[in-house]
Amino acid sequence: MILVNGIRKRFGAAVALDGMTFEVRPGQVTGFVGPNGAGKSTTMRVILGLDRPDAGQALVEGKPYRELADPMRHLGSLLDAGALQPSRTARNHLLWLAHSQGLGARRVDEVLEQTGLGGVARRRAGGFSLGMRQRLGIAAALLGDPPALMLDEPFNGMDPEGIIWMRGFLRSLAGQGRAVLVSSHLMGELQGTADHVIVVGRGRVIADASVAELLNSASSGRITVRTESPEAPGILAAAGATAAPTGDGGLSITGLPAERIAEVLHRHGVTFSELAAHRATLEDAYLELTRDAVEFRAEGPR
Amino acid sequence: MSILRAEWTKFWTVRGWVLGTVAVAGLIMVFGLAPGMSGSCGKHGPASECKPLIGPAGVEVKDGFTFVHQPLSGDGSVTVRVASLTGEIFAGPGASRPGLAPWAKAGLMVKSGTTPGSTYAAIMVTGSHGVRMQWDFTHDKAGPSGSGPQWLRLSRAGQTVTAAASPDGSAWTEVGSTQLTGLPVTAEVGLFVTSPQYSTEFHEGLLNGSQGGPSLATGTFEQLTAEQGWSGTAWHTDWIGGKPDWSETPETEQEGSAFRVAGSGDVGPTGAGVSATQTLVGTFTALIAAVVLGAVFMSTEYRRGLIRMTLAAGPRRLHVLAAKAAVVGGVTFVCGVVAAAVVVVFGQRVLRANGVALLHTTTLTEVRLMVGTGALLAFSAVLALGLGALLRRSVTAVTVAIVTIVLPYLLAVTVLPVEAARGLLRFTPAAAFALQQAVKQYPQVDDLYAPAVGYFPLSPWAGLAVLAGWTVLVLGAAAVLLRRRDV
């Protein structure tokens, strides 16, 4: 659907994209995650032909975006929800976009209903909250009924209710078989939404994996045990685990699964009041990955 | 096409821009229909109407001179030696000083009759423009340029009148010839002398203008001879067109074939005057609205990153620029044409009803005024659009557009001396105001053909070409940058 291949882009001395390469597949929500300045927005602008890359190319359905006729019928995008003329009504904002793709007013009314903006269609978009503008941006992206969508930080400025709506909406778009690329600088926003995650840092891809794979790799089995026994660290070390006090009377243990820890402690007659296995979150996986990236970068430029 | 439609939708969905469009047309109409000028024609009873004298070409003319003539039939020729031409110039009430108006005239004339405005052809010595052949008021042809005594000859063969000049009376040079349709078999032939209103420009601080008054010319002629079919010596003097401008014009003195003739007035087209251009006086305010519209229609795209959405919807960037230019140019063109049509048609009536003696404008010229006003606004708006694309900031783009397009015109019609004003209106985008010039400027009539009264240094289409050149230049630069830049 969307293919990004070896894109490099400098702004003056600053390297924005350093060989960015990934693919967005249909039928799933692909999260595009990285810290601010990692090159997410620049990548999206290159995909849309707004920025010219120094090297590499981005293809939408096998073609550069600039060569698509009525491009919004192939890729719908939301780069900046604030990019609108404040004095134009929501409906008229969508109307000129529809006209640019050879579409009519009927399609405008459809996407307004779909995004829940039917009631405010004739209000000036300048008076919209950021959350409503995000919905308007989604409506614009949907105008051409495209097989692929690309949304830059669509959760920004949304209230909890809006975030829940957005998640469900993105899932349903992917459920219809569309390719959905969603960027965020907060991995947590994508939990339960994304099927696949592309983690970027400093203009390149750090990880490109399914959510399940990421969680497994990050679930290194950290377990906390709360016990009063001073022998516990020694016993566990002898069994092959590493134990470190957590500071609040607990021990943080790695290297042994929870069942083995319970068995070893039980065998040695050590009593404990709590044994908890921590499931890794996407956030943990993300932090781990980006921390590595930071350490790697600290070696200096290659 | 869909990009053009999208840009049109963009345009009409912003109320401010629609109001701006209304302002473009409205300002022209408000200024053009408000009776901002008044005159005395018809204001002081039944005898005070201004009835302009219309020449054979349909334009207002002056026909006032001293004519020493006799009726002569059929073909023939008349020859004379102009021994001297001297003059006096008005220098305040009751005072005069010696001086010859540059277009003082003394020579030979054949004219269909003594009725002012009737067809004629003449050869003459002038104050400082050498020997000229002139006919039917608007035509002027240069002959030998030397000063000093000159021999002049005028010959008629059917309806063809030929003029010749000679420094010595034996070696003759033909100056020109013309067909005078409507010249009767018996025409009035003879000597004529006249001297036009004399004007000088003055600049005192911010005040510019012209001042002047009547002038008198006196020609001494020798050896006036009718020959080659014409004969007769019964010359008598008439003041064509009523009393001369000079209050005490001396009578003609004759000694055989030698004459001393004094005259004051002019034979030729009317000089500078109020014309249909006056009705378009509000154009510069509409122009401000049009360039703001043009600049902002583009620069707003950059204000909130809307340009990214525009170019994501239409990745062919030059198509987008062209569509925007077409929309803003088309809208301002239509507004300009409609508003100009209204004021040219009705504004002239308002001015005439208000007692202003308005120079006649042909229908073809009126159409050019209407279309030209539309073109002036449209090209300016597109030029401003280009500036908006180059500069990407509304304030900067609007400022530059007004300074380069509107300000030169404003300076030219207000504080600048005429020569500086003409210079400015030759190369700045404001040169296209020449499209609004309604009546011709005649080099053979000295007058203050100032931009302020509707006379521009370039021809209408040359003026438009200057503006179009600027527009193409700026839009071209905008196109190159728009293609190259990341947005």
Automatic annotation (TrEMBL), chain A:
Location of the ABC transporter domain: 2-227
Q: Name one GO molecular function term.
A: ATP hydrolysis activity
Please give the superkingdom of this protein's source.
Bacteria
Q: Which residues form a coiled coil?
A: none
What keywords are annotated for this sequence in UniProt? ATP-binding, Nucleotide-binding, Transport
Q: Which family does it belong to?
A: Belongs to the ABC transporter superfamily.
Write down what this protein is called: ABC-2 type transport system ATP-binding protein
Organism (species): Actinoplanes regularis
Taxon lineage: Bacteria, Bacillati, Actinomycetota, Actinomycetes, Micromonosporales
UniProtKB/TrEMBL annotation, chain B:
Q: Name one GO cellular component term.
A: plasma membrane
Any one GO molecular function term: ABC-type transporter activity
Q: Keywords for this entry?
A: Membrane, Transmembrane, Transmembrane helix
> Does Transmembrane count among this protein's keywords?
yes
| Recorded superkingdom | Bacteria
Which residue ranges run through the membrane?
Answer: 12-34, 280-300, 321-347, 367-391, 398-418, 461-482
- Pfam families annotated for this entry? ABC2_membrane_2 (PF12679)
According to the UniProt entry, where is the signal peptide?
none
Does the entry feature the keyword Secreted, yes or no? no
Protein name, entry field: ABC-type transport system involved in multi-copper enzyme maturation, permease component
| Species assigned in the record | Actinoplanes regularis
Taxonomic lineage is:
Bacteria, Bacillati, Actinomycetota, Actinomycetes, Micromonosporales
